Amino acid sequence: MLDYLQQRFDHPNVRFYQRDQLIMIELKNGYGQATLTTHGGTLLSYIPAGGQDLLWVSDTAIYDGSKPVRGGVPVCWPWFGGYDASKMGAHPTDAAKKAHGFARYELWEVESLESVGDATQLVLSLVPNERIQQAWPFDFKLSLAVTLGKQLRVELIGENRSDQAWFVTEALHTYFKVAKAPGMVIEGLEGITYYDKNQDFAPFTQADTLKVQAPMDCVYVDHSVSVVLKDHDRDIHIDKTNSASTIVWNPGAEGVKAFADMPDDQYQHMVCVEAGNALQNGYELAAGERHTMSMTLAAR
Ligand SMILES: O=P(O)(O)OC[C@H]1O[C@H](O)[C@H](O)[C@@H](O)[C@@H]1O
After folding, report:
1. Pocket residues for ligand 1 (CB within 6 Å)?
2. Which value does ipTM take for this structure?
3. Torsion angles phi and psi, residue 68, rounded to 5
4. pLDDT tens digits, one per residue of 119-151
5. How far does the centroid of ligand 1 lie from the alpha carbon of residue 50, in Å?
6. What whole-number distance in Å separates Cα of residue 116 and Cα of residue 214?
């Protein structure tokens, strides 16, 4: 496979290599470097030129393809969180209804690789296979377009190729690498309603500027604007389009123990701030329609 990809997608700014069982794709140009794997269509690293990685990946992440890599930007689609039969429709084999959908468990195809001006763009895509159809019988195409330019742009494009409408919730489940997560300020969520998963999704309003709690697991709804993570020596800007929810998650000192692929101390150095459409921000995608959600990352 590696030889095939290197020949088929020969590009001066791109290198394909293998890590354990996974195919890795490294984009590198004057703006920086980004690394993805076809496993789950997951972006694992983004290092702006002259800067540090914005993304956190666990030191004990698994690279054998048996589960998503813990870290980076897992793609949660076509459902975020638990499978909601009342919205998605009940189907036979529940075992297939894993949290956060099936996309992050599947092998994606390399669709295209090109220069866009002096930026470099990679498109990965996923279409149904037998395993997916057991979980979810609809025809679709899901694409992830990643453009390494002045900023890093990530677009998630869902296409309904079936003859009926279906309901989608989703997230770009980004793990940010930060100096110290507990107490770190995140600007841009002031006054927004959120549902606290750790309190049975009880609703609250973010009265003042958020200081990250460890643990926390909150879905901010009707929130379509940017946020800024005030990391120790940099500001991480997250701009987004077609995303009405922002999820903030940190497992905390106790919760982290439940994750075999996450060392106990590492909750201190990561926070997930996820651009998505969750809970009541989910939407119906009509037959033949497409929906594009995007996230743009920059460190200043
Ligand atoms: O362990 P995972 O399935 O990757 O989920 C990790 C976390 O993802 C999201 O942020 C959810 O809001 C959390 O409730 C969940 O624990």
Report:
1. 99-100, 197, 217, 247, 249, 272
2. 0.98
3. -60, 150
4. 999 999 999 999 999 888 999 999 999 999 999
5. 31
6. 40
